[in-house]
Automatic annotation (TrEMBL):
<dbReference type="GO" id="GO:0008270">
    <property type="term" value="F:zinc ion binding"/>
</dbReference>
<keyword id="KW-0547">Nucleotide-binding</keyword>
<dbReference type="InterPro" id="IPR014729">
    <property type="entry name" value="Rossmann-like_a/b/a_fold"/>
</dbReference>
<comment type="similarity">
    <text>Belongs to the QueC family.</text>
</comment>
<comment type="function">
    <text>Catalyzes the ATP-dependent conversion of 7-carboxy-7-deazaguanine (CDG) to 7-cyano-7-deazaguanine (preQ(0)).</text>
</comment>
<dbReference type="GO" id="GO:0016879">
    <property type="term" value="F:ligase activity, forming carbon-nitrogen bonds"/>
</dbReference>
<feature type="binding site">
    <location>
        <position position="205"/>
    </location>
    <ligand>
        <name>Zn(2+)</name>
    </ligand>
</feature>
<feature type="binding site">
    <location>
        <begin position="11"/>
        <end position="21"/>
    </location>
    <ligand>
        <name>ATP</name>
    </ligand>
</feature>
<feature type="binding site">
    <location>
        <position position="199"/>
    </location>
    <ligand>
        <name>Zn(2+)</name>
    </ligand>
</feature>
<feature type="binding site">
    <location>
        <position position="191"/>
    </location>
    <ligand>
        <name>Zn(2+)</name>
    </ligand>
</feature>
<keyword id="KW-0067">ATP-binding</keyword>
<feature type="binding site">
    <location>
        <position position="202"/>
    </location>
    <ligand>
        <name>Zn(2+)</name>
    </ligand>
</feature>
<keyword id="KW-0862">Zinc</keyword>
<dbReference type="Pfam" id="PF06508">
    <property type="entry name" value="QueC"/>
</dbReference>
<keyword id="KW-0436">Ligase</keyword>
<dbReference type="GO" id="GO:0005524">
    <property type="term" value="F:ATP binding"/>
</dbReference>
<dbReference type="InterPro" id="IPR018317">
    <property type="entry name" value="QueC"/>
</dbReference>
Length: 232
């Protein structure tokens, strides 16, 4: 890696991807932010969070792409008004209704195009172990397979590493690392359901609150409810 290596970071506006940004910077990369709006319930808050984070770290570039086709396809409570966002069930091994079919393949395909066009040598994604228990496109095998797609599908001489630094970590591990790196979690948003305040009861809120509670820290964003998830 050289002094000026660049990395595309998939930045959703949430805490995992924000921590991935800081991890990329810690490893010596200049971050190129890729943020997508795909019709999710909280897209405007997520975009604002991603932009605030980009300003905070003085990102080398910020690309916002609208991918309405994921909402048009539907079949996810994040994008389909006819489906309710479920309350958290932290012990479930079922694929949750919030799963957006094959979303990460769509997002990573755009990230590869963005990386190749800007001579980036890496792509960072903040997926972690509690994601892949429910989302098939967050599993280590998926990222290994997609690395092969990158290697085969880009022009000769292109070397882009797909980096999922937290893929074997828990949400608590990520929060601990982020606090160590000084991630401004007040500029992040995880709620699947509401734009302000966060609901505190959907899966995303529950895992996030649980991570901070496990560390004895207070999550800096506002919640309608803050249930205790430490025994969940």
């Amino acid at each position: 890696m050289t002094e000026h290596d660049r990395a595309v970071v998939l930045v959703s506006g949430g805490m995992d991807s924000a921590t991935a940004v800081y991890e990329a910077i810690e490893r010596g990369y200049d971050p190129y932010f890729l943020h997508t709006s795909y019709g999710q319930n909280t897209e405007s808050t997520e975009l604002a969070s991603a932009k605030a984070l980009a300003e905070e770290v003085e990102a080398a570039d910020f690309l916002h792409v609208e991918t309405e086709h994921l909402a048009a396809i539907g079949a996810s409570s994040l994008t389909d008004d006819g489906m309710d966002v479920e309350d958290a069930d932290l012990d479930s091994d079922e694929i949750p209704s919030s799963y957006v079919p094959f979303r990460n393949a769509n997002l990573l395909a755009m990230a590869v195009s963005y990386a190749e066009a800007n001579d980036c040598s890496a792509i960072f994604i903040g997926a972690h172990s509690e994601d892949f228990s429910g989302y098939p496109d967050c599993r280590p095998d998926f990222f290994e397979a997609f690395q092969r797609v990158i290697d085969v599908g880009t022009k000769p001489g292109t070397n882009i590493d797909l980096v999922a630094p937290f893929v074997e970590w828990s949400k608590t591990d990520i929060a601990e690392r982020g606090l160590e790196l000084g991630v401004p979690y007040e500029h992040t948003w995880s709620c699947y359901q509401d734009e302000s305040p966060a609901c505190g009861t959907c899966d995303a809120c529950a895992f996030r609150l649980q991570a901070f509670q496990n560390l004895g820290e207070r999550d800096p964003i506002e919640y309608a409810e803050r249930p205790d998830y430490t025994d969940a």
